[in-house]
Amino acid sequence: MDLTLFSQILTVFGLSVAVIYSCHKVRIPPIVGFLITGVLAGPYGLGLVSAVHEVEVMAEVGVVLLLFTIGLELSIGELVRLKKSVMLGGGGQVLFTIAAFGALAYGLGQSVSHSVFIGFLAALSSTAIVLKILQQRAEMDSVHGRISLSILIFQDLAVVPMMLVIPFLAGGMGGEGGSGLSFLWPTVKGIGMVGLVFFLARKVVPPLLHRIVQTRSRELFLISTLAMCLATAFLTSQVGLSLSLGAFLAGLIISESEYSLSALEGIMPFRDVFTSLFFISVGMLLDVNYLVNHLPPVIGATGAVLVLKALMVALAAFLLGFPVRPAVMVGLALCQVGEFSFVLAKVGLTHGLMDAEDYQLFLAASIMTMALTPPLIGLSPRVADWVRGLPFFSRMRKRPFEQEMDAACSGHACVADHLVIVGFGVGGKHLARAAKSFGIAYRVVEMNPDTVRTSAAAGEPIIYGDASQTAVLEYVGVPEARVLAVVVSDPVSVRGITDAARKMNPSLHIITRTRFLSEIEPLVELGASDVIPEEFETSVEIFTRVMMRYLVPRGDIERFTEEVRSEGYEMLRSTEVRGESFCTLNRQFPGMDVSALTVELGSILDGQTLLEADLRKTHGLTVVAVGREGEVMANPDGTLKLMAGDVAYVFGPHADIKAKAGLFTGRVRPWERTEPMPA
Question: What domains are there in the chain, each with its CATH number?
Answer without folding.
Answer: 51-172+181-388 (1.20.1530.20), 400-514 (3.40.50.720), 589-679 (3.30.70.1450)
